[in-house]
Amino acid sequence: xxxxxxxxxxxxxxxxxxxxxxxxxxxxxxxxxxxxxxxxxxxxxxxxxxxxxxxxxxxxxxxxxxxxxxxxxxxxxxxxxxxxxxxxxxxxxxxxxxxxxxxxxxxxxxxxxxxxxxxxxxxxxxxxxxxxxxxxxxxxx
Length: 141
Known about the structure:
Layout: H1 3-9, E1 13-17, H2 22-34, E2 40-44, H3 49-53, E3 68-71, E4 74-77, H4 78-86, H5 104-116, H6 118-122
Parallel strand pairs: 1-2
Antiparallel strand pairs: 1-3, 3-4
C-alpha cells in the first residue's frame, strides 16, 4: 500500500473483523445497515490492512479473537472496540455505547466468552462477505 493511501486511512474510523467468522460478518452487516452517516469503514483482519496501518509492536495480543477498531490514530480491542463502534450507529443502537461505564474487566470477560464461542453461534466461512456495490467503497482492505 502506498504511503499516501495509508495517510488517508489514518483519518478514518475502521472496523477490523474476522473475515472467516459468520458471527463477525453478520455484525458487519448490522453495522452497515445502522451507520447511516456511512462514516465507518471495514477491513478483514486477514486482509493485511491492519499490519500496514499499525506497526506490529502495537497490535494487541487478542488477535484474531477480537474485533478491532481504529479511530483517530488509536486501536481499540474487545468490548471497548465494540462499544465505540456502537457510538457510530443510529439511535437506538447508539445507546449501547453507555455500557462503557461498566468496568472494562467485566465487559471484556463477557466479550471473550462470546468471542470464544462465535463459531458455534454462527459458524465459519471460507470467504469474506460480498458487499453490495454501494457498500464496496467502505471496505478498505
